[in-house]
UniProtKB/TrEMBL annotation, chain A:
This is Alkyl transferase. The keyword Transferase applies. Keywords: Transferase. It comes from Arachis duranensis (Wild peanut). SUPFAM superfamilies: Undecaprenyl diphosphate synthase. Coiled coil: none annotated. InterPro entries: UPP_synth-like (IPR001441), UPP_synth-like_CS (IPR018520), UPP_synth-like_sf (IPR036424). It comes from the Eukaryota. Its EC number is 2.5.1.-. It is an enzyme of class 2 (transferase).
Automatic annotation (TrEMBL), chain B:
It comes from Arachis duranensis (Wild peanut). This is Alkyl transferase. Keywords: Transferase. Belongs to the UPP synthase family. InterPro entries: UPP_synth-like (IPR001441), UPP_synth-like_CS (IPR018520), UPP_synth-like_sf (IPR036424). It is an enzyme of class 2 (transferase). Its cofactor is Mg(2+). It comes from the Eukaryota. The gene is LOC107458383. Pathway: Protein modification; protein glycosylation.
Length: 332, 313
């Protein structure tokens, strides 16, 4: 009887919170809502230390925070959420920690693919962004499976950056751009064809092709991004063909659009807000290319402590400066 | 980028939050206590007093007549760690002028004086490289009058400071797309770079007509040319190879340890994109012409309290 009362009370409270949250989001939605929010989920280990828990528990608490924030973002109407789950630099940590993080990721991916998870609730398409070949096979396979299973979802997108750094992303984009230009010029017959598949690992090419497939699928959806990508790549190819006519044996110069369309993150528009928890004010090699005009918020809260109030505050500030930023973006 | 201003309890801050002030530009530092400064009352008074330095000292330069370059090292700072490379986005000249009902050119002139002070401080305190964002590729859309004034200001300032740089061991380098600059400015830059290339006390890198994205693209073009010429294999392309081709290859320390952006904006605005991967960012509410020794000491103090892990432990 006592337990039943406790259960009813918590259900009522939960319902009340949910109702209140919907009211807040209703008010926020009267202004511009960010299309894409990126998070650097910093502070799990410090949280574990602070609360005298094992390090692994800190990361699990972090995952719970992630689910909460995803729910808030998707409820508000944010279409794209990107999270920095694991940097290439994090491989420098103790092997035991890295292994347990990989295990945790694999376990949570399986959880996310369950019927009652947030992925199905909001129709979320999953992207795993990064140099996936650096990951152990079991976790890489589970990521590929998750991307395949959610490929048809169109309502929301979750981009999880794993084995990712911006510098690695840019190097990869440059290599792909160069190969495209080289192979396009080959049609003039003056330069030998480059092997399209990288010597490293076919997975990366596959991942990139998959990203392009998703971008094309997205063309049916609401974003401009894939449209722009296709247009710019069409323009790029036209320019290459035209340049090829004039300078046989000369390679056309790599353009900004070439690099951009070959980025792992080309499947999504640039973030409107970047939030890094735990009070650190640095980018740590995350989305350097994509966040150049994006506001950065640095709440002191550790990632497992992040709450609705932080998101609301970030969105309010975004709305305050939205018209100014839009004007600036048009100038670029 | 914008500060979060709700009175949400501070958790795990590294330093005590600075006192609040009544100034309009005060940021309630409850969420970002240690990442930028808020105005103290003394700063408030300084802000409200019209800063006539730029107007009164018109034409005076760093190290003029009996003044020496050396500024004593502040007691509030530790000797270590100091950033080897400081980058600055000098934002706020226009707003500074507008607040005083002056033309934007007055703001830029005041900004030039603030830059001279910054150079003096960096040279005095052992900072090896100072990179400043003077003019972005995006700034070409500004009114022609303002752009022309800025170009002539750059030329005049370099001209007036060359002798000081030579005397004080400061090397000047300019990065950015030179193709759009007036030819007289290009000549002045080449002359200044040549005359100061042996200096090693402080390297001042001025980014003019610069864009972080285009820096990466031009580096990629250089790399692509090397691949095409057979100097490099495609498989050899890595981060180091690209980094060597960036315009910041003119210095031994291409990656800033600390980036300061003034005027309260919380974004990077296409400045040194690649190079900022691990840079500590510091956002100050002061407008650039008002950013002086006190503000710089606070920025350095904040840097000294940061814990840099670079992804590892």
């Amino acid at each position: 009887m006592h337990k039943d009362t406790g259960g009813i009370t918590s259900n009522l409270l939960g319902g009340l919170c949910s109702c209140l949250r919907r009211c807040i989001f209703g008010i926020l939605s009267m202004g511009p809502v960010p299309n894409h929010i990126a998070f650097i989920m910093d502070g799990n280990r410090r949280f574990a230390k602070k609360t005298n828990l094992a390090e692994g528990i800190g990361h699990k608490a972090g995952f719970s925070s992630l689910i909460s924030m995803l729910r808030y973002c998707y409820e508000l109407g944010v279409k794209y959420v990107t999270v920095y789950a694991f940097s290439i630099d994090n491989f420098k940590r103790k092997p035991k920690e890295v292994q347990s993080l990989m295990e945790l990721m694999r376990e949570k991916i399986e959880e996310l693919l369950q019927d009652e998870s947030i992925i199905n609730e909001y129709g979320v398409k999953l992207h795993f962004i990064g140099n996936l070949q650096l990951l152990a096979e079991p976790v890489r396979i589970s990521m590929e499976k998750a991307m395949k299973v959610t490929a048809h979802n169109k309502q929301r997108v979750l981009l999880v950056c794993v084995a990712y750094t911006s510098s690695d992303e840019i190097v990869h984009a440059v290599e792909e751009s160069f190969k495209e230009i080289w192979n396009a010029t080959v049609s003039n017959g003056t330069i030998g064809q480059l092997d399209r598949s990288p010597k490293r690992n076919g997975i990366r090419v596959n991942a990139q092709d998959s990203c392009e497939d998703y971008a094309r699928q997205d063309a049916d959806g609401s974003t401009d991004r894939s449209g722009k990508t296709e247009t710019s790549s069409c323009n790029g190819m036209v320019e290459i063909a035209e340049e090829g006519k004039h300078d046989q044996g000369e390679l056309p110069a790599i353009k900004l659009t070439d690099v951009e369309k070959n980025m792992y993150m080309a499947v999504a528009p640039d973030p409107d807000i970047l939030i890094r928890t735990s009070g650190e004010v640095r980018l740590s090699n995350f989305l350097l290319w994509q966040t150049s005009t994006c506001p950065l918020y640095s709440p002191a809260a550790l990632w497992p402590e992040i709450g609705l109030r932080h998101l609301v505050w970030a969105v309010l500030n975004f709305q305050r400066h939205h018209s100014y930023l839009e004007k600036k973006k048009k100038q670029f | 980028m914008f500060s979060l201003r709700l009175p949400i309890p501070i958790e795990n801050t590294l330093i005590t939050p600075p006192p609040k002030s009544n100034n309009n530009n005060t940021y309630n530092s409850s969420l970002c206590a240690h990442s930028y400064s808020s105005y103290s009352h003394s700063q408030t008074n300084r802000f409200l007093t019209v800063r006539n330095v730029a107007l009164q000292k018109n034409g005076n330069s760093v190290g003029d007549s009996k003044d020496t370059m050396m500024q004593p090292f502040p007691e509030e700072l530790n000797a270590e760690p100091l950033p080897r490379h400081v980058a600055v986005i000098m934002d706020g000249n226009g707003r500074w002028a507008k607040m005083r009902n002056l033309m934007p050119s007055a703001g830029h002139q005041a900004g030039a004086e603030a830059l001279k002070e910054m150079v003096r401080l960096c040279a005095s305190w052992g900072i090896k490289v100072l990179t400043v964002f003077a003019f972005s590729t995006d700034n070409w859309v500004r009114p022609k009058v303002e752009v022309d004034f800025l170009m002539s200001l750059f030329e005049k300032t370099i001209n007036s400071e060359i002798d000081v740089f030579i005397r004080e061991g400061i090397r000047i380098s300019v990065i950015g797309d030179a193709s759009k600059l007036p030819s007289s400015l290009i000549r002045m830059i080449k002359y200044a770079e040549e005359r100061t290339k042996e200096n090693s006390r402080l390297q001042l890198i001025v980014a003019v007509s610069y864009s972080g994205k285009y820096d990466v693209v031009q580096a990629c073009r250089s790399v692509a040319k090397k691949v095409k010429d057979g100097i490099l294999d495609l498989e050899e392309i890595n981060e180091g190879i690209i980094e060597q081709e960036l315009e910041t290859n003119c210095t031994e320390f291409p990656n800033p340890d600390l980036l300061i952006r003034t005027s309260g904006e919380l974004r990077v605005s296409n400045f040194l994109l690649w190079q900022l991967a691990y840079t500590e960012l510091y956002f100050d509410g002061a407008l650039w012409p008002d950013f002086g020794k006190e503000e710089f000491v606070e920025a350095l103090s904040s840097f000294q309290q940061r814990k840099r892990r670079f992804g590892g432990r």
